[in-house]
Amino acid sequence: MAYRWTAYPKLNDRKVEQLAGLINVSPTIAALLLQRGVETFEQAKKFFRPQLTDLYDPFLMKDMDKAVERIKKALDSKERILIYGDYDVDGTTSVATVYSFFNKFTDNIEFYIPDRYKEGYGVSKIGIDYARDTGVTLIIALDCGTRSIELIKYAKDNGLDFIVCDHHLPGDELPLATALLNPKRRDCEYPYKELSGCGIGFKLIQAYAQVNDIPFEEVCKYLDLVAVSTCSDIVEIMDENRILVYYGLKKLNEDPCIGLQALLQSYQIKQEYEVSDIVFGIGPKINAAGRIADAKSSVKLLIEEDFHQAIFLAKTLIENNTERKDIDNDITKEALDILETSDTLKYKKSTVLYSEKWHKGVIGIVASRLIETYYKPTIIFSEVNGMLTGSARSVKDFDVHDAIGACGDLVVQYGGHKYAAGLTIKKESFEAFTRKFEEVVELNSTAELLTPEIAYDMEIDFREITSKFFTLIDQFKPHGPGNMTPIFRTNNLVDAGSRIVKEKHLKLIATQKGTKFDGIGFNMSDVFPIISKNTGFDICYSIEMNEFKGIRNLQLKVRDIRESV
Description:
Layout: E1 4-7, H1 13-23, H2 27-35, H3 41-48, H4 64-76, E2 80-85, H5 89-102, E3 109-112, H6 125-133, E4 136-142, H7 149-157, E5 161-165, E6 179-181, H8 197-211, H9 216-220, H10 223-232, H11 239-254, H12 258-265, H13 275-292, H14 296-303, H15 307-340, H16 343-346, E7 351-354, H17 363-373, E8 378-384, E9 387-393, H18 400-405, E10 413-416, E11 420-426, H19 430-443, E12 453-456, E13 458-459, H20 467-474, E14 488-495, E15 499-501, E16 505-512, E17 515-521, H21 528-532, E18 537-548, E19 551-563
Parallel strand pairs: 1-12, 2-3, 2-4, 4-5, 5-6, 7-8, 13-14, 17-19
Antiparallel strand pairs: 8-9, 9-11, 10-11, 14-16, 14-18, 15-16, 16-17, 18-19
Helix pairs in contact: 1-2, 5-8, 5-10, 5-14, 8-10, 10-11, 10-13, 12-15, 13-15, 14-15, 15-17
């Protein structure tokens, strides 16, 4: 796949010099900080040294006082409380956090996760009926509920109060909940809008602890779960999220909850776990239960306090994840075969595929995998109860949620975000929907938008890469949206003995003006001919510390290579 290389817009030289002088760093480091919104000494201090004391007052969030008051009333009156959440990582960690905290104050509490196949996403009538029939009077919904207008009205008509803790974008109408905690509602002045669902659950227990003289340390016990949620849900890791993830990773490394301990036993043992270990290791295992079996087993693991039982529960999740991998690999292969044998489909601006055999729990993953090969907005459908349920994934700068909405009456229902959405259509509408979606994508995209991008921070020379330089950029962690791993470009390199290893990986050895660095390009054997021409080449890369047989050295992680102009 050919990439377009995009440089970060040029910064104001004076601003770079000012910040470099203020905090005593090189202009390159100052520029990297400015790109991440760090402009002052105070902001730099908070960036490099996050403090829990810098978390915002939870009562700045609209309705927080109402939520705390209603929960206090329920606990004092021994009302039955139901903690309700979605079946993905954010939902299950949210439920585990809020349930575990309030379970210390009452035995009259349970949790509920809807069945992906019988109930679908978010608040369901089945869940509300279950709550009513079991004597529940208060439901705390996490990572869902903002758009459940009719269902929350139905709950109210049945004598149930709702507290909604959500981070999804509200519609024009808000639900008739006792409290709606969502920083994205227009009338909420909370200073930070990008918390995960679990992050909002954390703010709820922080607020409750604050007014009920519960030590803040009791709230901090759940920071590892907040980090798992925030990283897995791919929300930005800036501002308050940076603090939560920074300390959440610290807890994950030093004193994880029993359930996460059990999951880490099955993962590679490392000195220090990072964001990538959550995104690619822990998160998928927690997610797998909801995709393949029952997401309640994820919550059971995350609230478990007996290590031996947790190991048993973790084994189930690991088995679910193995099964999930096999299923999504098979479906991805089938989908790629369909695309590769059809010139019509291959050259469209969008990918829309369907098979009644495809498993609903993995079609979102399959959509993402197809984008790795055919970089275009993608929707994969499976059949559920006579309807087609789809998972949509998008490419940078294309709003797939809006594109689905533009398909009008062909869509029965839909929801989600700019880059990921879910939808339902009638089976007989598939061909018409496919045509309409293609029209919308063609109208709203360009050749450039449908070419994958490598966005690099800046161009540097090899001589700038020193141990001190790496030590500083290593402190930019934790990385994530809003603060991605710094990517650099270096031009006019000369090969110094590069080779192919294990048939598909590139072992780079390159020099620039006498300075030599080693690098690794995974699955990049195809660019070796560019290097071996010996006519000079440019690379985009990040910098990492490589350790082999106890020896540590800086290494370039190659993202792409092209001939020098």
